[in-house]
Amino acid sequence: MRIGIDLGGTKIEAIALGDDGATLLRRRVPTPAGDYPGILETIAGLVGSAEQELGGSGTVGVAAPGAISPRTGLVKNSNSTVLNGRPLDRDLAAKLGRPVRIENDANCLALSEAVDGAAAGAEVVFGVILGTGVGGGLVIGREIVGGRNRIAGEWGHNPLPWPRDDERPGPACYCGKTGCIETFLSGPALARDYLARSGSRLTAEEIALAADCDDGAAERCLKTYEDRLARGLASVINVLDPDVIVLGGGISNLTQLYAALPSSVAGYAFSDGIDTPIVRAVHGDSSGVRGAAWLWPERNTSAAGVRPAR
């Protein structure tokens, strides 16, 4: 049995998968806000209750924002800032009495979709999270590629490509820079753009509904968002040229984005044509937690997991 944990800013989700990938149990609880010891206790409680209910023990993988630094062994680059500077893997291993594997949440999404989701059978998969933040993960041959510095795929903290005059220098980012892709393509960024155009506060989902009801400000917001997303993805294709790009996170559910996105990307990419599939994650909100469970391959199953850093 594999147990996966998705450590999010507002919720912590647990899943237990059987050897065949079937879901045996799934549970969500609120994340203790700003409370690191509380987060450890909550994860331990989820693992313990799952094992008690299912009558067995399992491996534990965790999807979390940020990454474990190879230099310090501590969490870095997490937009859940309470995790930064913490030995999360060691603290959880001590709490659970077993080794724990921790990977970036976008890496876990990409792994999940490469194993048995929208990118099943693809060799090179780039996974994207469009939500509270903007993340990216790279999987090659069903193995996560974290990179030498554990930042492979972090396209959200590159500058927005081909910026317009009114996009410079760009909003401030929690990472300390300005104009990061994340500050233009996150859910809060879309809401901020609508507020500036309309004076009203709506969520991303509400903006999409408003656009369907001929709200001009909402329509312009989504058109601008689509163009910025196309610029960002074109820069990924120029560097990586993946077989598939899988979108996850709340904004990936906005179906209006998909119709024109491939042609928009093709207009920016360095090629005479682009046929890269850009698809929504099959497992939706559960992709991250499923990918966390897949961090531990089991006997008698085809391998999936993490490619060691060189």
Overall number of structural domains:
2
CATH topology of the largest domain: Nucleotidyltransferase, domain 5
Oligomer: single chain
So how many helices? 9
The coarse silhouette is globular
Q: Which CATH architecture of the largest domain?
A: 2-Layer Sandwich
Order of helices and strands: EEEHEEEHEHEEEHHHHEHEHE
Q: Radius of gyration, rounded?
A: 19 Å
Write down the overall mean pLDDT.
93
Q: Helices and strands: which structural class?
A: alpha/beta
| Low-confidence runs | none
Residue fraction in strands? 15-25%
Order of the strands making up the biggest sheet = 12-11-8-9-10-13
Summarize the structure in words.
The protein has a six-stranded mixed sheet with strand order 12-11-8-9-10-13. The chain is globular. The chain folds into two domains: 2-105, ATPase, nucleotide binding domain (Nucleotidyltransferase, domain 5, 2-Layer Sandwich); 118-281, 2-Layer Sandwich (Nucleotidyltransferase, domain 5). Strand 2 (11-17) and strand 3 form a beta hairpin. It has helices at residues 36-54, 88-96, 105-116, 182-185, 187-198, 204-212, 216-240, 261-268, 287-293; strands spanning 2-7, 11-17, 23-30, 59-64, 67-68, 75-76, 101-104, 124-130, 134-140, 143-145, 244-248, 278-280, 305-307. The chain is an alpha/beta fold and 310 residues long. It starts with a strand and ends with a strand. Helix 5 (187-198) runs antiparallel to helix 7 (216-240).
